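WARN no homologs supplied; continuing
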Amino acid sequence: MEYKERSYRSRFSDDGRRWFCVKFLESDLWIGVDSGSYRASMEEDVYAFLVDLRRRMDAYLLMDPQYKAALTPYDAGLEAPNILKEMSRISHKTGIGPMSAVAGAVALRVADFLKEKFGVEEVIVENGGDIYASVAEDMDISVFAGQSPLSEKVGLHIPAAAFPCGICTSSGTVGPSLSLGSADAMMIVCQDVLLADSYATAMANRIKTVSDLQPVIESIQSIPEILGALAVKDDRLAVTGQYELRLFH
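OK structure emitted
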């Protein structure tokens, strides 16, 4: 089942930042920057950047359809855009296809664009549940888990010292992205947002029932790049890592 309404975004909207939305094809970005750095042209400039980025990516994918279809590590060709080469690099770490990192990769590129063009001091880019954040204060991030009674009721407390980082969520019951599991949500935090995105998919793939939660969480404990993880299936959750569990009303 696909949930298109992104009500969880309202949690970000009253934090003193300036927020705006940019959409092109499957990319649906919710972007926040510190109010002192905000410029009226940002939305138009980010849209132009996103269109160019996606068109270059899609042009390559038309020439190399196996890249997009791969469910295991796959190397981009020499002529591929660098973003696709970075996604390939990540796929060899997580053991699944490179497209598992695409949302995080796009979020990072947009954030870097805003830093370079406008010199923003703080930026958050959320792309369909996958977040790149570079901020100066603690953040509480709730997990959207579709029809689970725990959806937006639990999350992680990310301290300021952890940023910049990626906070990514994969699901087998929410959204259009391919998942081979049935997790309502698998949230992963890594310094590298591409790694967080791909690991979230890889771990969500392994959750079919509530009995899978604990073994998956235990396996995550042996991966030093994963700084925090929160898994939700039905009315159960499992958590591990450096960050405190948060409850929301």
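The first helix runs from residue 42 to 63.
OK
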